[in-house]
Specification:
The chain starts with 24 loop residues before the first helix and ends with a helix. The chain is mostly helical. A five-stranded mixed beta sheet has the order 2-1-3-5-4. The protein has helices at 25-49, 57-64, 82-91, 97-117, 125-137, 139-144, 151-170, 176-191, 193-209, 216-240, 244-254, 264-270, 287-309, 313-332, 343-362, 369-414, 428-435, 451-457, 495-502; strands spanning 422-424, 438-440, 463-468, 481-486, 489-493. The protein has two domains: 5-363, no CATH class; 400-502, no CATH class.
Length: 503
């Protein structure tokens, strides 16, 4: 039986479209606006980030799990295999990075469209269009959309899942939103199980604690999706790490020990385009770069006030609550920062913030409306300019780094390092993947062997130790040939590689 909308606080009035309105020409036109946002997002990825940008460190780890181009890199405790399976349809048969980038760009655009489409009826199309544009124009969203990284997909799953939750509460006879919530929870947990739990906490709280929100099918769908998505990760915890608690403990150690860490300053420093801020030192970015970050909570509060006034509080309060819980571990429980960590939070804030902006340009009286429209338009134009300036800078720097790795791997191939082969030392994972070699480390978060294992490998295959500068080699590499490769990168080449080259 359909419950009245007021029992869960969802009102399709106050300027918002009916949640259950039949499809009309206006509805179809609204879908085209959402599709236009998704299409522009894909175009930005292909033209600004560009498919030719090589794979990064973490990408090499994820792609190597399903690629035949190189042996699988060491898979540490915090990682989940969702993104590896997502890229498998391309990476499983092709080593082309541009092809993989195009595939992911198209898929990310489709994911954004679906996530926005789920919210139809909860907010006007103009709000959803602006919200999608705000999220899709952030430099971090455009930068990571075509990358083999899980954070964007957690964001898409979070936005879709909360929308499905609200739609299911609006009309309890509909099964589509229930299945949508299950699929969204599965996607999030598939990508990053711990992030999925943090995002889902307000939903679980509402379903279990708040009587007017209790919905047995939704609770089963949410819990079932989380369990199904995390199942492989949990099973692997027992197979490879000695149990779930042990995997969580190792993951905490790799991340520097989870606990009380105020990482707000670290996140601010990362907004200048630092893909990983660890250690996160140095001066704060120009205030122009970080202004949007401080505007988010203000606009979110305005959006919530507008929702309360319009008697549609849940449609705004719930995504805001999920945005807060999604941000907690990365603002207060981890000692470093990466801008991609907060992508789920940005996605969940986008629609309430857009609602606030629309209200700001429509609510004032006729005399003040031109002023409000001008201020918001100038602010959005400046914000877009800053985002793309940071994006262009980040793409240039990242592309240059990846090209350096490519040159290093090409130099190693000329020296006889051809598959099967092994590389060890700092920054070897992306270089090894590019060269088609295995990678090894004797210490740190990617430790997967010891000195004896590397020495033994050098007896049967080409092996090289990469260093930054002509530093003293490990004991097993003394007597190996020292070669300068590119810039400050040096390699100690095992005699096996040189002998194979001569042969």
């Amino acid at each position: 039986m359909t419950r009245p909308l007021h029992t869960v606080g969802l009102h399709p009035t106050d300027g918002h479209e009916p949640a259950l309105a039949p499809a009309t020409g206006r509805d179809r036109k609204g879908q085209w606006w959402l599709a236009a946002v998704a299409g522009a997002f894909v175009l930005a990825q292909l033209t600004v980030v560009r498919p030719g940008m090589g794979l990064g460190w973490d990408e090499s780890v994820y792609v190597s799990q399903v690629s035949s181009h190189a042996p699988a890199s060491f898979f540490s405790a915090p990682r989940a295999r969702g993104i590896s399976l997502l890229v498998a349809p391309v990476a499983g048969w092709s080593s082309s990075t541009p092809l993989l980038r195009v595939y992911l760009a198209l898929l990310s655009g489709l994911g954004l469209f679906v996530a926005l489409r789920v919210w139809r009826g909860l907010f006007p199309v103009r709000v959803l269009t602006l919200g999608g544009a705000l999220f899709a124009s952030l430099w971090v969203t455009v930068f990571y959309g075509p990358q083999a990284m899980p954070n964007y997909w957690v964001a898409v799953g979070a936005l879709t899942g909360v929308g499905c939750f609200l739609q299911a509460q609006t009309d309890r006879t509909r099964r589509g939103p229930v299945w949508g919530l299950a699929a969204s929870a599965l996607l999030m947990a598939w990508m990053r199980p711990t992030d999925a739990v943090w995002v889902a906490l307000p939903l679980l709280f509402a379903l279990v604690v708040l009587r007017q929100w209790r919905h047995a099918r939704l609770l089963i769908a949410l819990a079932g999706g989380l369990v199904a998505g995390a199942a492989e990760w949990v099973i692997e915890a027992y197979v490879r790490f000695g149990g779930l608690s042990q995997r969580l403990s190792e993951g905490s150690d790799i991340q520097g020990g989870l606990g009380w860490h105020i990482a707000i300053g670290d996140q601010l420093r990362s907004l200048s385009g630092r893909s990983l801020c660890r250690p996160c030192t140095g001066a704060m970015p120009n205030p122009v770069v970080t202004a949007w970050w401080f505007a988010l909570p203000v606009l979110a509060a305005i959006g919530l006030a507008v929702a309360v006034r319009g008697r549609r509080t849940p449609s705004t309060a719930l995504p805001l609550a999920c945005a807060v819980t999604a941000a907690i571990p990365y603002l207060f429980l981890i000692g470093y920062a990466a801008p991609r960590f907060l992508l789920p939070t940005y996605a969940l804030l986008a629609i309430p913030v857009a609602d606030a902006l629309v209200w700001l340009v429509t609510a004032p009286g006729r005399a003040w409306r031109p002023v409000a429209v001008t201020l918001v338009a100038v602010g959005l134009a400046g914000h877009l300019a800053v985002q793309y300036a940071v994006l262009a800078h980040t793409v240039r720097r990242t592309t240059a780094d990846h090209e350096t790795w490519e040159r290093t791997s090409a130099a190693l191939r000329r020296l006889g390092l051809r598959p099967p082969c092994l590389l060890t030392g700092p920054s070897t994972i992306p270089i090894a993947f590019s060269a088609g070699c295995a990678s090894a480390s004797t210490d740190g978060p990617n430790a997967n062997t010891d000195a004896t294992g590397i020495a033994q490998a050098a007896q049967r295959m080409p092996v090289a130790v990469l260093t930054t500068g002509a530093t003293r080699p490990p004991s097993y590499a003394r007597g190996w040939r020292l070669v300068r490769l590119d810039g400050a990168v040096y390699a100690y080449i095992a005699p096996t590689a040189l002998r194979d080259r001569v042969t």
